């Protein structure tokens, strides 16, 4: 089943499979985000002034972001990629794990 969350006011914790997960923030997140997902794409849209720590891992999928300053490790040949790092100062932890789907972390707006 697809899951779509807009402007969560607190901590986000999702465990699921089959379908797409979309989390949209109109304001920078203040609480941690944790998603464990299988068999579907995972998208997080954040405003440009957001600050956060990120650890995103996908197995058999792609990692895409429009935020600068994040490092990517892993080997596409092994189908195991990790995107991690700090954007801005402090901020909540964003922990994303996805199998058999892409992870998209988008900087929304200007």
What does it look like?
The structure is a single chain. This protein has strands at 3-6, 12-17, 21-24, 33-38, 42-46, 52-59, 63-65, 71-75, 80-87, 93-99, 103-107. The chain has 110 residues and is mainly beta. Strands 2-4-10-6-9-8 form a 6-stranded mixed beta sheet, with no helix packed on it. It has a 5-stranded parallel beta sheet with strand order 1-3-5-11-7, with no helix packed on it. A hairpin with a 4-residue loop joins strand 8 and strand 9.
Question: Can you summarize this structure?
Answer:
The protein is an all-beta fold and 110 residues long.
Brief descriptors of the model:
110 residues, mainly beta, 5-stranded parallel beta sheet
Overall strand count: 11
Quote the average pLDDT: 94
Structural class, please?
A: mainly beta
Give the number of helices: 0
Tell me the major beta sheet: 6 strands, mixed
Strand order of the largest sheet: 2-4-10-6-9-8
Q: Level of helix content?
A: under 10%
- How much of the polypeptide forms β-strand, as a percent range? over 45%
Q: Topology of this structure?
A:
Blueprint: E1 3-6, E2 12-17, E3 21-24, E4 33-38, E5 42-46, E6 52-59, E7 63-65, E8 71-75, E9 80-87, E10 93-99, E11 103-107
């Amino acid at each position: 089943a697809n899951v779509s969350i807009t402007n969560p006011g607190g901590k986000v914790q999702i465990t699921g499979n089959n379908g797409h997960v979309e989390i949209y923030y109109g304001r920078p997140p203040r609480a941690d985000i944790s998603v464990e997902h299988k068999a579907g794409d995972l998208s997080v849209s954040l405003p440009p002034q957001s600050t956060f720590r990120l650890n995103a891992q996908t197995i058999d999928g792609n990692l895409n972001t429009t935020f600068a300053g994040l490092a990517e490790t892993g080997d596409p040949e092994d189908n195991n990629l990790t995107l991690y790092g700090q954007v801005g100062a402090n901020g909540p932890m964003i922990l994303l794990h996805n199998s058999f789907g892409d992870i998209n972390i988008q900087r929304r707006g200007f």
